[in-house]
Specification:
This protein is of the alpha/beta class and about 325 residues long. The protein has 16 helices and six strands. It has a six-stranded mixed beta sheet. The longest helix is centred in the N-terminal third of the chain and has 40 residues. It is globular, with a radius of gyration of 25 Å. The N and C termini lie far apart (about 50 Å).
């Protein structure tokens, strides 16, 4: 059989059509999710209205669950526990006309139940719902950010961005900085060295990127730069694909010292000179240290000629680390019959 002769533009047309199919499926899935969210809200509202009726107690909800599952055997969302979540959902977001327009409608139901379990404050629920929807957080990522009070950490790192970057770029760069960073997924012994921290972050790069935030892409570790025969190495280098900027990360174990700012500024200058392209936003630096004196940090930032941020990082406390099973123990448990 002769091979079919394809038009010259066939490959590009196929790529565009595939992209359209993916986009259409994504939009359809989002519509389905919104409809399901609205349905759950409506069921919850009916239950909320009848809560004060003594005849609508726990046993009635269990009976309602059984009847709904019998009528809709393919649906898994009508357990008694889920019906109670629906009632809480209707109480937490009281206006059905606004639900479809809010970020919560874009979230999977599992995310919504996490918000209902963990938060009582309506403004905080809306903030986390908005962040999760905008950044595509998984359920585990949402739980991590709730546990580590992300709303207090996002954008909180002291920087000199407002002095060295134009206002628009400064605001964007500030948004991707936190203080402190929480690396509770790492298991490092007390007294660890900087290289051990660096190695651990790279080995758990998926979790590291999740804590850094949406848009970060890992470029490399100990990235070399040559300056007229002298070699220098950047601890960790990232690229923020949404802001189109390099982010230089330096790790320091112990309390912040003013000379660290000069070293980080030097590395930012190297990346600006050797890697940054005209289409890129200005490179910024992030220094992570165990502890810092905020007043010393302010002086160091004021004296730096490069845009940098200085933040602390937290690890899982040693007592909690010791209580966790080792990776060997986890593998054995998973492999056991």
């Amino acid at each position: 059989m002769d091979e079919l002769a394809l038009p010259n533009d066939y490959a590009s047309v196929l790529v565009r059509l595939k992209q359209r199919v993916h986009e259409s499926r994504y939009r359809a899935q989002r519509r389905v999710n919104v409809e399901l969210t609205l349905l759950y809200w409506q069921i919850g509202q009916v239950l909320a209205e009848r809560t004060d009726d003594a005849q609508w107690g726990t046993k009635i909800i269990q009976r309602l669950s059984a009847d709904l599952r019998a009528e809709f055997p393919d649906s898994r969302g009508f357990s008694p526990r889920n019906l109670v979540y629906m009632r809480s959902f209707a109480r937490a977001w009281t206006d059905v006309t606004e639900i479809a327009q809010q970020a919560v409608a874009q979230l999977p139901w599992g995310h919504i139940t996490v918000l209902l379990d963990k938060l009582d404050d309506p403004e905080l629920r809306d903030w986390y719902a908005g962040q999760a929807a905008a950044n595509g957080w998984s359920r585990s990522t949402l739980e991590h950010h709730l546990k580590t009070t992300a709303h207090l950490r996002f954008g909180a790192a002291p920087t000199n961005f407002d002095r060295l970057l134009d206002p628009a770029s400064s605001d964007l760069a500030q948004q991707i900085m936190k203080d402190p960073y929480v690396f509770d997924f790492l298991r490092i012994e007390p007294g660890h060295a900087e290289r051990e921290l660096e190695q651990a972050l790279v080995e758990r790069i998926i979790e590291t990127l999740g804590e850094l935030g949406s848009g970060f892409s890992f470029v490399g570790r100990q990235v070399p730069f040559d300056v007229d025969g002298d070699e220098f190495f950047v601890d960790l280098l990232f690229f923020h694909v949404e802001q189109l900027r390099y982010v230089v990360v330096e790790l320091k174990v112990g309390k912040f010292k003013p000379e660290y700012a000069g070293q980080l500024g030097f590395y930012v200058g190297l990346v600006e000179d050797q890697l940054r392209r005209p289409a890129h936003a200005p490179t910024v630096g992030l220094l992570l240290c165990t502890d810092k004196n905020d007043r010393v940090v302010r002086y160091a930032l004021a004296g730096s000629s490069h845009p940098i941020a200085i933040a602390s990082y937290d690890l899982l406390p040693p007592a909690e680390q010791a209580a966790l099973p080792s990776e060997v123990e986890l593998r054995r448990a998973l492999e056991a019959p």
